[in-house]
Specification:
Elements (H helix, E strand, L loop, with lengths): L3 E4 L5 E4 L1 H9 L5 E2 L6 H5 L12 E4 L3 H14 L3 E4 L15 E4 L6 E4 L4 E5 L4 H8 L4 E2 L10 H6 L7 H4 L6 E7 L5 E5 L4 H7 L8 E8 L1 E2 L3 E9 L3 H13 L5 E9 L5 E10 L2 H13 L5 E2 L2 E3 L1 H4 L13 E9 L4 H11 L8 E7 L2 H4 L13 E10 L5 H15 L20 H5 L3 H11 L16
Parallel strand pairs: 4-6, 5-6
Antiparallel strand pairs: 1-2, 3-4, 7-8, 8-12, 9-13, 10-11, 10-12, 14-16, 14-17, 14-18, 15-16, 15-20, 19-21, 20-21
Helix pairs in contact: 8-11
């Protein structure tokens, strides 16, 4: 390894001597990778194929000691830092250009305590991996709607998922978190320890440190009824009107999502995706109106496992290689005027991989006090997402423009708020909209725990100190 040119926190270039880099490498239990070394290109690839950044160094951490060493090294040498958990976020903030990438993806231990109904999970896990362990005991906590999503980013941003109606968001089930702060200190945040920081970690993203493990509350989850019904796009108006009423009347145990998309056969369709967590007979009664409505092209609703439920969207959003861009907002209502715009715009999708999704936030997730966690968007409402996906990088400008124009047409109907996990990297002006009245409280936490903004590659809450 020769002297290394690296990007600093202020955006300038600097040189790290070979001996300095080697000493850092020797201090780690996991490997330290540079460009051209085995494993480097694989480590820097993330879910969004549009992201093609090249860190100067990738620290593939094997444990907390490696994380501490990496944070202290970055701080000492004023290096630009990114932190990778699952690498699933649309922004690609997990990967920096020219800096130090702290890669947690090898940290995957899980310890389930069935008696206490808790699980301690390291930050490199995906929800599919986490569910595999907890479901061995018939337990689960609210995770993402895609199994390849990382537990860290989802939880730190709030955590919408299939269980949120019955058990709240991922962050509502967080009991404690271990993290390494910007000054290289290790601490645990919980309701009893550093409660101010614990509040901020439940929705405030990766602004306050590198979380190395999460302790979750887990719940008995055995019987699951789930699947989707598909209707032709020609029936979208009637289907979406039915969907808005059906979703609003779902009990806590049920969650109904909807999508305007293209079927595997290439036909434009509207889908209603439903899950029911609980007694199958009771669930059948809840979903019966959905199954009887209209003349579905397909009905896949059936008893299944929670592990399988968490994979329902996996095929529609495959990991890696696909170019992606999206925009998102919250909607309080799905009125007739809005439905007309959604149908009209969806008819002009540029790729069969693109889609428009609606996830209904209700039940337990909507009953939490807005001030209880940094995620404060607790109304009964829909998270709506315009998602463009394509494979040819030369088409990117057209897909980005289509997505922006679609979102602009819908925005007059939106609340002005947004789920922080669904913000793109260009949307720094909307970060306040993700935090409602809690933003200034988050700034105060940033001033306390990361006053130099070492952790800036995120939906960044900028310090004022």
């Amino acid at each position: 390894m020769t002297d290394l040119r690296i990007t600093t926190t202020n955006g300038t270039d600097a040189i790290l001597e070979e001996a300095t880099v080697q000493k850092f490498a020797d201090s780690l239990r996991g490997p330290l990778l540079g460009p051209g070394e085995d494993g480097y290109d694989g480590a820097r690839k993330v879910w969004n194929g549009m992201i093609d950044r090249r860190p100067a160094l990738i620290a593939r951490c094997a444990g907390v000691a490696d994380v501490v060493a990496a944070v202290r090294f970055a701080r000492t040498h004023e290096l630009l830092v990114s932190v990778r958990g699952g690498g699933h976020n649309i922004t690609g903030n997990a990967v920096c250009e020219g800096g130090l990438m702290i890669d947690l993806s090898r940290m995957k231990s899980v310890r389930v305590d069935p008696a206490r109904r808790t699980a301690r999970a390291e930050a490199g896990l995906t929800w599919g991996e986490y569910n595999h362990e907890t479901q061995a005991f018939g337990l689960a906590s609210t995770g993402g709607v895609v199994s390849t999503t990382g537990i860290a980013g989802l939880t730190l941003g709030g955590g919408l998922g299939w269980l949120m109606g019955k058990h709240g968001l991922s962050c509502d089930n967080l009991l404690s978190a271990d993290l390494v702060t910007a000054d290289g200190q290790f601490l645990t945040a919980s309701a009893d320890q550093h409660p101010d920081l614990f509040w901020g970690l439940r929705g405030g993203g990766g602004n306050f440190g590198v979380v190395t493990s999460f302790e979750y509350r887990v719940h008995p989850v055995d019987a699951v009824l789930a699947g989707m019904v598909l209707h032709p796009m020609a029936k979208a108006r009637e289907v979406l009107r039915f969907y808005r009423d059906f979703a609003r009347n779902c009990p806590d145990e049920a969650l109904a999502a909807a999508a305007l998309m293209t079927s595997p056969e290439g036909a434009p369709v509207v889908a209603i995706i439903v899950s029911y967590i609980g007694d199958i007979v009771a669930g059948e009664a809840v979903v019966a109106p959905l199954r009887k409505f209209g003349s579905p092209l397909l009905d896949t609703i059936a008893p299944t496992s929670y592990v399988q439920l968490n994979t329902l969207f996996d095929a529609a959003v495959p990991y890696g290689g696909v170019q992606r861009y999206w925009k998102s907002s919250f909607l309080k209502q799905l009125g007739d005027d809005l439905i007309e715009i959604l149908i009209e715009r969806s008819a002009k999708m540029l790729s069969p991989m693109s889609m428009v999704l609606f996830f209904h936030l209700h039940g337990a997730a909507a009953r939490v006090d807005r001030n209880a966690t940094a995620f404060g968007l607790r109304d009964d409402q829909w998270d709506y997402d315009v998602i463009s996906q394509w494979t040819d990088p030369d088409e990117s400008a057209d897909h980005v423009q289509w997505t922006r124009e679609f979102w602009t047409a819908v925005e007059p109907f939106a609340t002005g708020e947004v789920y922080v996990n669904h913000l793109d990297s260009e949307e720094a002006t909307r970060i306040r909209a993700a935090y409602s009245q809690g933003y200034e409280r988050l700034v105060a936490l940033k001033n306390k725990y990361d006053p130099t903004n070492l952790f800036r590659l995120n939906q960044n809450i900028k310090p004022t100190s």
